[in-house]
């Protein structure tokens, strides 16, 4: 979190997220890099919520993710939890979306 929130405010601006993603994806993206980016947005949780996506991403990108992310079914799931890990691996052909 310190990489995207260097002043310790407890929130990540979209510009900070873009800057982080730019540093992380110099030549090629990998599923692991995208997973790590979602993990940052999710506050290090194993899932992300629609509220978090809508708060941190442009509307069209948030809605794209929300429409395509499967519900998260882990033991720490909360109502509306979304599985960003399976979504990310599917984007890179490592699983089916």
UniProtKB/TrEMBL annotation:
GO terms for molecular function: actin binding; calcium ion binding. Pfam families: EFhand_Ca_insen (PF08726). Keywords: Actin-binding, Repeat. Residues 1-27 form the EF-hand domain. Gene3D superfamilies: EF-hand. SUPFAM superfamilies: EF-hand. This is EF-hand domain-containing protein. It comes from Zosterops lateralis melanops.
